[in-house]
Amino acid sequence: MRVAVISAPPQRRSPPDYVLALAKGMEAMGHTVEIVDAWTDDGMKLPACQYITIATEPISFFSAKIPDVVPKILASRGIDGKKSAAFVKKAGLRSNKALFNLMTAMEKEGMLVNWSEVLLNAPHAQAMGKRIGA
Questions:
Q1: How many other β-carbons are positioned within 10 Å of the β-carbon of residue 42?
Q2: Using one digit for the tens of pLDDT, what is the confidence trace for 32-74?
Q3: Range(s) of the domain holding residue 113
Q4: Is there a contact between 74 and 105 (Cβ–Cβ < 8 Å)?
Q5: I need a surface site. Which of 11, 52, 84, 125 has the fewest CB within 10 A?
Q6: CA–CA separation, 28 vs 56, rounded Å?
Q7: 24: how many CB neighbours lie within 10 A of its CB?
């Protein structure tokens, strides 16, 4: 299965370790994984993927808001009706609410969120990646 992992950290930077571990776990299951940087990519690759995963974290320790770049990349065409997963890195007091906000943004664009999880660390992310498509 062709999977896109959208990396959407709060600040513009290279994909964090939990995103790379998530992708590594998916590749271990035989999936073709492409990491999409939400800050620099325009989302044109997303319609060609069968499964879309978004990995982000709250914008601050006390906040439940997700980065503004997430709705921007989700506005790309051709992703409605796609199966997807939502992951939020535990990075504050309101990570569960941030996960809810991420899922709401994804469902607003017509995506079918069939799995969501709060990621604790990189090994946990890799274990969750191995469960996609299994």
A1: 11
A2: 999 999 999 887 888 889 999 999 999 999 999 999 999 988 8
A3: 2-129
A4: yes
A5: 11
A6: 22
A7: 15
